[in-house]
Design goal:
mainly alpha; Rossmann fold; 2 domains; 3-stranded parallel β-sheet; 43% helix; globular
Length: 232
């Protein structure tokens, strides 16, 4: 199972640009970087923390305006600015050759999922994804385990047989809470220090490095002094 933003698609810079445009358009002060990162990892619920308390307008109204402006500005974002990370296509093809099911768990709303899947469609691997869990598909969002458990249920795979790959502490917390092994990728929100705190099963630079830990013909990572606590 994979997170989407910052894991499979290089969308983090586009999200920062989008958030800056939203708050500039509405004449609001820019949120702090940690809040912007929280928005990318946890979804639109973070808008509530981004609106200044002293704002003269009704907070619910401002939040709704953020949604409306964001939806308008993001319409072409995934078509024009966002690309698949290197190695995703090769990894997906290898997993399918091995008969391993692939699912995606994202905090994206269902109505926008296919727009964000466009980079996978462009590379011809959209059909490799058997299940996509959107924010509405589980009662609680990450870091709760609910969306990951729902993905496992739809894939008909026991959670303990699953591996969840993500770029943030939220992903690792959700995967561990679901009883899954976890892989942290350094291509998105979290750094090594963050992952060290949450202790995923494995940490790699990007999805491009995962195949080296799975392919039987690859060099033994112990020779390179890498993290060898790998998924079974």
């Amino acid at each position: 199972m994979f997170d989407l933003d910052g894991t499979l698609i290089d969308s983090i810079p586009a999200y920062f640009d989008l958030l800056q445009s939203i708050f500039d358009t509405l004449g609001l002060p820019q949120p702090e970087i940690p809040l912007k990162k929280a928005f990318i990892g946890r979804g639109p619920v973070v808008f509530e923390q981004m609106i200044p308390e002293q704002n003269d307008l009704d907070r619910d109204t401002v939040i709704q305006q953020c949604f409306e402006v964001g939806r308008r500005l993001s319409r072409d974002m995934f078509r024009n600015k966002v690309r698949l990370f290197p190695g995703v296509k090769a990894l997906f093809e290898m997993l399918k050759q091995q008969g391993i099911s692939i699912g995606i768990v994202s905090t994206t709303e269902r109505q926008f999922i296919e727009r964000k899947m466009q980079p996978l469609t462009n590379e011809g691997i959209r059909k490799a994804v058997e299940v996509i869990i959107a924010i509405e598909d589980a009662p609680q969002r990450k870091p709760a385990p609910d969306p990951l458990l729902e993905c496992a249920r739809r894939l008909s795979v026991a959670p303990q047989k699953c591996v969840y790959v993500g770029d943030s502490d939220v992903d690792i917390l959700a995967g561990k809470a679901a009883g899954m092994q976890t892989i942290g990728v350094l291509s998105g929100l979290a750094d090594r220090q963050t992952f060290h705190k949450e202790q995923p099963t494995l940490v790699v630079e990007s999805v491009n490095d995962i195949w080296r830990h799975l392919a039987p013909q690859t060099e033994n990572p112990k020779k390179r002094g890498e993290n060898t606590h790998e998924p079974e």
